[in-house]
Amino acid sequence: MPAAEPPDETAVALGGRPADAAVETIHREMTAFARRARASAGRMHPELSLVSYTLLGHLEERDGSRATDLAAHYALDKSTVSRQVSALERAGLVERRVDPDDHRVQVLHLTEAGRHILGQVTESRRTAFRERLADWREEDLLRFAAYLERYNAWPGTARGEDEDRARPRDTYG
After folding, report:
1. Range with the largest mean pLDDT of 20-24, 32-36, 93-97, 127-131
2. Which site among 26, 61, 134, 149 is 20 to 30 Å from 104 CA-CA?
3. What are phi and psi of 147, to 5 degrees?
C-alpha cells in the first residue's frame, strides 16, 4: 500500500492548517469504519449486533461480568446494557449465575452456544481484516496497530468522554 498522502490544498484551506485537515480526515474515516463495522456485524451473524458481539467478547475475556460492570466499562447507560443482555439471554447466548462471593449479585456468563457463535463471528471478522490488509507492508501494519493502540489509550476513552463530545450518537455506535 502506498504511503498516505498529505491532505489536499482544499482540505487545508477548510481547516486552516494541515493538522486541522488531517483531524477532519481522521474523523470522516473513523466514521466510515464504524458504519462498516456495524453493517458487517449483521452480515456475519444476523442476530448479533456489533454491541452484542462486543459484550460477548468482554464476557469471554473476563470469564463473566456483572451487567453494571459492563455498563461502566463501555460507558453505556444501564438500561442499554439491560436491553442487550436480555436479548442475548433470549437468544441463549448468555446466562446469569449467582456470584459465589456475594449471593446477592448475578454474573453474566457465555453459554456454550454463546461461545460457539462468538468464535464463528470472531473468525469471520479476522478473515475479513486479513483480506482487507493483505497487501499492506508489515511495517505499515505495525505502525497502524501502534497508532490505534495510542489513540485508544487516551485516558478519556475509559470514561467514555470521547463518545459524548460533539458528535452524533450514531457516528460510532
Report:
1. 93-97
2. 61
3. -65, -40
pTM tops 0.85: no
The strand pairing partners of 69, in sequence order, are: none
Q: State the cell numbers at 107.
A: 454474573
Q: How far apart are CA 150 and CA 22, in angstroms?
A: 17
Number of Cα atoms under 13 Å in the Cβ half of residue 134? 6
Lowest mean pLDDT among 108-112, 131-135, 162-166: 162-166
Residue reference for cell 490544498: 9
CA distances from 64 to 57, 58, 120 (A): 10, 8, 19
How many angstroms from the chain centroid is the CA of residue 69?
17
CA distance 10 to 22: 12
At residue 159, the pLDDT reads: 46
pLDDT at 63 over 60: yes
Of the chain, the end-to-end C-alpha distance in Å amounts to 29
Q: Give long-range contacts, CB 8 A cutoff, 24+ apart: 108-117.
A: 108/59, 108/64, 108/65, 108/66, 108/67, 108/70, 109/59, 109/63, 109/64, 110/56, 110/59, 110/60, 114/56, 114/59, 114/88, 115/60, 117/45, 117/48, 117/56, 117/93
